[in-house]
Amino acid sequence: MLDKLKKILICTVQINNSFSGQNYLPYSAGVLETYVKKHFSNPDLLHFKNPIYKRSGINNAVNDLVDCDIVGFSVYVWNFQISLEIARRLKKIKPNILIIFGGPHVPDNMTQDFLEKYKFIDLAVHGEGEKTFTEIIEKFYTKDWFNIDGLSFIDNKNEFIKTKPRERFRNLQDVPSPLLEDAFKNLMVSNPNEKWIGLWETNRGCPFKCAFCDWGSATGDKVASFEEERLKREVQWFSNNKIEFVFCCDANFGIKKRDIDIANFIAQTKKETGYPHALSVQNTKNATERAYQTQKILADSGLNKGVALSMQSLDPHTLKAIKRDNISLDTYLELANRFSRDKIETFSDIILGNPEETYETLVNGVDTLINFGQHNRIQFNNLSILPNAAMGDIAYQKEHGMITVISEIINIHGEKVQLEDDVPEYQELVIATKSMPKKMWRKTRAFCWMAAFLHFDKIFQIPLIISHTYGDLKYCDVITAFIDADPVKFPTIASISKLFIDQAKVIQDGGAEFLYSKNWLGIHWPQDEYAFILLTHENKLGDFYNEAKSLLYELLAIKDSKVPKDLIDES
Predict the structure, then answer these.
(1) What three-state secondary structure class fits 280?
(2) Helix 491-508 × helix 475-483 angle, to 10°
(3) Contact of 130 with 35, CB cutoff 8 Å
(4) For residues 294 and 254, is the Cβ–Cβ distance under 8 A?
């Protein structure tokens, strides 16, 4: 029967952000296409158009898609709104087109309300989509979706249907490589001036179930692996196609013993061919020795410019609340010491707004990290809610008194680019919890910026280290003193503190996470960097250092410290 039917025209939409004129190859779209072509009963019946991979005018995208029979959207927080708007306009022009939404932003706890709100979505796919997408296309002419696992839809009787969950792949050898199958050949030929960023996965799954993350929440069991020989051929593909930057999509690179061999292979490929220039990975948790070895290989070869040691919190009550208490802090602290010894830069992550976290626990955690030698960077990230993370559950939010606000997504150091036909993307930020009420959240956010300003932007790092080492002052106490500085005695410092407190209030009111400056490059600055620019621009850097020295003297005097004044003055 199928061979008598007209060809089915299919297009996938996986819109990613662009960085410095570079765009991601749409990996998810490529996997879907290659899987369908391999497993479809009659592949000659199908024709795939080049996927839509970056933001452009919405009507341009609609015009590219309007001749299609099926359009599949891969959605996440950075492309959800534009995907919705493309689909809405597309359905209005062509009501019989089949619109499918999949990806991490499709809620697992799907209700009829979602599909009633977005009536232009015909089918919502949950979990891994390759098999589901293939079965949908098989049933395209009959529209019999009821026996396809992993689907939500509203049927002809206006009844909400959610089929049983789709089982995860246990054997990833059934999933062909979009790189090796040349899924991107036509796309790359059609866009010869693009500089591409590679997306790559060596395994799927995450054994951890951190409450803020939808990665482990989606899988939470054993990690399935692609075969090593395939991965080596994919590395060679990146090299042959001169892909400079590769982002590894694994949740825990280094979790498998073989990852050391894979890291060595990539390093050797770069040495021999010059490509790829860089490989970004998410470190494994708990596997201390393998995490160290894989990251050292990447760092020594220049593939990785810094090692991420993602703490998120150092408070045991918080770690338990966010289901991260099974990840050893000792692992991170040992790794930090070893990388420091090897002169390999690391940076740490702390999430602001986690349940059970207080001002005191967070600042003490920062103090601990600096004490353990983290002088390079702590990234202080505002907690955002993802729909399929445990924190996306309303009951969880109520239990911990979480207050959220909808905020437009702005990239750090991002330009204020407004396309003629575009829509903004939004995130749900946590701006208070039961353990950290709104006022304390503002002070905590200000502390994080002040810690970055003083210590990690290197503006006051040496005096801080000296006063801590020889004056027995805690890092967090000095940083807090700058936040609480008397505006009469220390007007310049107090003005910085006020800037940070005011900006925290801006975020709580739904404003941008970063501070836009039309005069200074026309980009969104982190508030700590903006404060430094402001001091320099207003010729107040000298005033700042004079006040900072006096404030440090006061703190040392309270401690009855014997640190020589000339040492403080010189630093």
Answers:
(1) strand
(2) 90
(3) yes
(4) yes
**Residue 483 near residue 449, CB atoms below 8 Å:** no
DSSP string, 448-508: HHHHIIIIITSSSHHHHHHHHHHH---HHHHHHHHHT--TTT-HHHHHHHHHHHHHHHHHH
How many CB atoms are closer than 10 A to CB 6? Answer: 8
Strand partners of residue 426: 408
Q: What is the DSSP letter of 536?
A: H
Name the residue among 284, 214, 279, 270 with its Cα closest to residue 248.
279
Output b/e per residue, 481-501; b: 16+ Cβ within 10 A.
Answer: bbbebeeeebebbbbbbebbb
Question: For residues 179 and 26, what is the distance between their CA atoms, to the nearest angstrom?
Answer: 11
Per the omega criterion (within 30 degrees of 0), is the bond before 276 cis? yes
Which two tokens mark 253?
């690179």
CA distance 306 to 298: 9
Beta strands 98-102 and 245-248, pairing class? unpaired
List the structure tokens of 507. 């975020």
Angle made by CA atoms 215, 218, 224, in degrees to the nearest 5: 80
Alpha carbons within 13 angstroms on the beta-carbon side of residue 13 total 30
pLDDT band at 1 (very low <50, low <70, confident <90, very high): very low
| DSSP per-residue string spanning 367-396 | HHHHHTT--S-EEEEEPEE-TTSGGGSHHH
C-alpha neighbours within 13 Å on the C-beta side of residue 567: 15
Please provide the average confidence, as pLDDT, over all residues in the chain: 93
At 374, list the tokens.
């983290």
CA terminus-to-terminus distance, the chain: 82
**Apex 421 CA angle, 416 and 427, nearest 5:** 55
Residues 6+ apart with CB under 8 A from 458: none
The tens digit of pLDDT for each residue in 165-203 reads 999 998 899 999 999 999 999 999 999 999 999 999 999
Closest CA to 90 of 61, 52, 119: 61
User: Which pLDDT does position 5 carry in this prediction?
Assistant: 67
Contacts of 404 (CB under 8 A, 6+ apart): 385, 397, 428, 429, 430, 431
| pLDDT tens per residue, range 223-235 | 999 999 999 999 9
Q: CA 363 to CA 483: how far, in whole Å?
A: 12
pLDDT for the residue 310: 81
